[in-house]
Amino acid sequence: MFVGQVGMGGEHAVSIQSMANVPIGNVDGNVAQILQLCAGGCEIVRLAVPKPGDVSFFEKIKNKLRSQGVQVPLVADVHFSPKIAHECLKIADKVRINAGNFAEKSGESFHGAQDFALERFAKFFQAAKEFGVPVRIGINGGSLAKRMLEKYGNTARGMWESAHECILAARTVGFHDLVLSFKASDVGLMVASYRLACVEMDNLGLGYPLHLGVTEAGNSHYARTKSAIGIGSLLLDGIGDSIRVSLTENPLSEIQAARDILQAVGVRRFSAEFIACPSCGRTSYDIQCVFEAVKEKIGRLECARSLRIAVMGCVVNGLGEAGEADYAIVGLPNGRVNIYGKNICLAEGVEQSLAAETLERVILGNT
After folding, report:
1. Is the pTM of this model over 0.85?
2. Coil, strand, or helix at residue 10?
3. Which of 11, 23, 68, 104 is deepest in the core (most CB within 10 A)?
């Protein structure tokens, strides 16, 4: 399936998403932020559309971007209001709804509330089918429908059953352009929910694309660690078609974090891959300084984007652990280094202060 011009699922690359955090009424502010996100590598952008009048702002933002030749897909994020979601179908490249608050009806039995939800979902999916707009069903651990919480608790089973309800409604009207997400702030619950969803979809012969994320992760190093564990472990299982690293920071920070995760698990490559030993008492040169200089110089080379570069402290690590690298710097006992390319020494006894620029010349000379 496609969200705008971005393919999702199947053989398509795992895409990177973020969400604008400027109030939607600030059209120019949103346009400016989205342009920054796109320049940073964001491939799909989501905007919150909380009030009926905000639909027109969404349209203005999209029109301004398109007038500048920016084709990034825009996703309308809607909670509580089917009416707003229906209006967004006329404009958005995708609409994201929260199954837990989109079709809730209090005061009913489980089955009575479920019948109401199925009817409301089916009506929305019928409209999405007519407009040709994909829909993300957002299942959040913190906002399951009351009937689901009472029956299943805040569990992976409850998350899946919430999504399955939407799937049933979509299938009744022949709508298939669904994306599913099962986000939670608890990494264990998030991972278990996605894995259960994959098992259940396999049993049903379904293969909807999955959007991955640890919601409400927070900020700084811990948030990135939580996201890397949750998103990364699923990607290593072959699960996931799009990701968002949710950070309580400038949204631009989410893009680099997402790229780091995708590259670390080997799903996509955005720059040279750098490896280095942690060093020990055998290291007789300033490996930290050399490693930073290497990353700075080689990281900006377009021709090095597909390369694996190793910086090793001594011969113990040396070409043994760096054997799979395209190029390697290996420390010598006298504070100097040797530079290798595919295990062949290309420069001997290089002064450590010249290591990075020597490696740069070697790489440029070989490309």
Report:
1. yes
2. coil
3. 104
